[in-house]
Write a structure and sequence with these properties.
124 residues, alpha/beta, Glutaredoxin, globular
């Protein structure tokens, strides 16, 4: 899978066809985004089983608004279509690798149960 540029046109198709997705919201003028890009690309090459998606917030304002991106770079992690992590700012390589390890280790049945529990509590 590796690294792909995601747009509003291909976003849903790519997200649904990948178990784990790591998104990098960035812009061409953003200095920290330029610093983070080689880290993101290196970790993407080391994890071919994960979709690493880059979303240019200038060109894809609709996606950035949908995910309420207020600061860039912002990294977001999805597994089985469920948002598990979102953090603005430059993440060091070891930090990104640690996040991936934690996401891979999650029991998604437990995650879904917790989401259902929280939704039930909100409805009361």
């Amino acid at each position: 899978m590796a690294l792909e540029n995601l747009t509003a046109d291909n976003f849903n198709e790519k997200i649904m066809s990948s178990e784990i997705v790591i998104l990098d919201f960035w812009a061409p003028w953003c200095g920290p985004c330029k610093q983070f890009a080689p880290i993101f690309e290196k970790v993407a090459q080391e994890n071919p089983d994960i979709l690493f998606g880059k979303i240019n917030t200038e060109a894809e304002q609709e996606l950035a608004a949908h995910f309420q991106i207020r600061s860039i770079p912002t990294v977001m992690v999805l597994r089985e279509g469920i948002g598990l992590f979102q953090q603005p700012g430059l993440i060091p390589e070891e930090g990104l690798k640690d996040i991936i390890s934690q996401v891979k280790a999650l029991d998604m049945d437990e995650v879904r149960k917790e989401i259902e529990k929280q939704q039930a509590e909100q409805q009361q």
